[in-house]
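Please fill in the sequence for the structure shown.

STRUCTURE ENCODING:
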């Protein structure tokens, strides 16, 4: 083998392992890019854990063998840098401070994927009887939200609004009275269009209102309809939410809550710091390679 060749050989001490996604370190990739920009390199890559003898970094990737020129190998490394950032797999979004209760002040969910749970706190005695979050829904009727198993000490209600701030559906009690709330999947009112939506949780019986009145006919204990899943059929149902009305039950109540979700994602994608670093490094390598090519042209 010529002295300009880099051979990636299987490690003698490596134990057999299940196939995994490529796991290049940023330093290894940068060193390889720098090397290939200096001279033609013939690279032989094998499956399993391998040791780059000159870089002394572990590399794992699918089997292939090829001889490449510097340009192709450099672009391969650059693309690796751009796409090696992996998303966070946390599934719970935790309220920061106090989430607002209307769209203008709703807390934007971010940094979790998929969004399977929202954790927060209500405190009616301090004026915090409602929280609202901006979430992203898959559509297709897969969305659901429930506080079953997620609240203690107060009667919760759940409400969903479209990005236009108008009501979609709501529930006070999944069954009976003073019970957790559920917005079910597969219901006639469950959203079928993907997009951003507003999810609100309140302590009963604080109800969303518009300039025309109450949006949802929930907590209708007199007619025994509090366990129904309701659409925006109240007097103000055709208009956008502007606030809330109604007295709290179980006052002072309040406390921590957890809303469990399906078919939902964070409304804002926040790349991890590592992803930013990889992207900047990749763009830097693109500029360096373009500069070298212009000099040799």
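FILLED IN BY: designer on duty
SEQUENCE:
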């Amino acid at each position: 083998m010529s002295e300009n060749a880099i051979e990636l050989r299987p490690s003698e001490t490596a134990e057999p392992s299940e196939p995994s996604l490529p796991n290049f370190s940023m330093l290894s990739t940068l060193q390889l890019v720098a090397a290939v920009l200096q001279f033609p390199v013939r690279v032989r890559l094998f499956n399993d854990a391998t040791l780059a003898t000159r870089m002394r970094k572990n590399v794992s990737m699918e089997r292939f063998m090829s001889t490449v020129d510097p340009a192709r190998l450099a672009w391969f490394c650059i693309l690796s840098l751009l796409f090696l950032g992996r998303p966070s797999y946390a599934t719970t979004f935790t309220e920061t401070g106090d989430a607002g209760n209307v769209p203008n002040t709703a807390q934007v969910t971010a940094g979790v994927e998929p969004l399977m749970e929202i954790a927060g706190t209500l405190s009616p005695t301090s004026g915090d009887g409602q929280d609202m979050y901006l979430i992203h829904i898959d559509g297709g009727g897969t969305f659901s939200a429930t506080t079953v198993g997620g609240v203690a000490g107060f009667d919760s209600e759940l409400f969903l609004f479209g990005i236009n701030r108008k009501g979609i559906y709501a529930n006070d009690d999944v069954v009976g009275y003073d019970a957790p709330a559920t917005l079910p999947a597969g219901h006639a009112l469950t959203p079928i269009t993907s997009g951003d939506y507003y999810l609100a949780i309140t302590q009963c019986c604080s109800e969303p209102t518009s300039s025309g009145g109450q949006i949802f006919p929930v907590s209708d204990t007199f007619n025994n309809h509090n366990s129904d899943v309701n659409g925006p059929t109240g007097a103000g149902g055709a208009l956008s939410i502007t606030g809330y009305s109604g007295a709290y039950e179980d006052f002072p109540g309040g406390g921590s809550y957890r809303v469990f979700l399906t078919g939902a994602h964070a409304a804002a994608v926040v790349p991890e710091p590592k992803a930013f670093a990889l992207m900047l490094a990749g763009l830097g390598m693109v500029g360096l390679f373009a500069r070298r090519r212009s000099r040799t042209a």
